[in-house]
Design a protein that fits this description.
alpha/beta; globular
Amino acid sequence: MLCLRGAVLTKGSFWRRKLSCLASSYLPGGATWPGNNSMAAIGRLSTKDTVLLLCDMQEKFRPNIFQFTNIVSNAARLLQASRILAIPSILTEQYPKGLGPTVPELGAGDMTAYTKTSFTMITEDVEKQLESLGNPKQAILCGIEAHACIACTTFDLIEKGMEVHIVADAVSSRCQTDRLFALSRLKQSGAFLTTTEGVLLQLVQDAKHPNFKEIQRLIANPSPDTSLLAFFSAL
């Protein structure tokens, strides 16, 4: 792309047509560069056409997942916010017979958990649930493990044409190396990386939002640190 820096891009020029053809190779979801018929996807979250996906935060993972307590704490905030803002949520459990139920501190006791053995959350039952929700265009994704179930779910959602927002401080793996490399890999694949507080504020966007005070209470205390500074410094 650098070799094109000196080109003059006039309307209808060869280089503009060339850039338009190349755009889908560089931007998430096949979006095109500004100036074409559709604007580049910038990842602006909305309460409309959005679903929260809660992946496999189960008892047997508790002693083994890096920063498990803080990951679940952040995911619980996201779930509370989704209820305040009327954003639907979907919960999965990986082989609960062996890995146990969802941990109670997530606050999802009233939800139906979709059981699975596949790494992806996008099972046949979850596909049906997404269809019943009108096939949301955006997914907010959190849970474990980053390099396995979160990764496979992200790939499937992007292939479906959905915009995926991975909440970096609400996903983890057993090993911090796997977690950080997974986040980097998923960013390369077109997912948007964000944080718990970032998601909550983007969803309301304005202090005049009718639910702002409720969301403000959720972020009164900063999200717990989940050791992401090393990843950030490598970006």
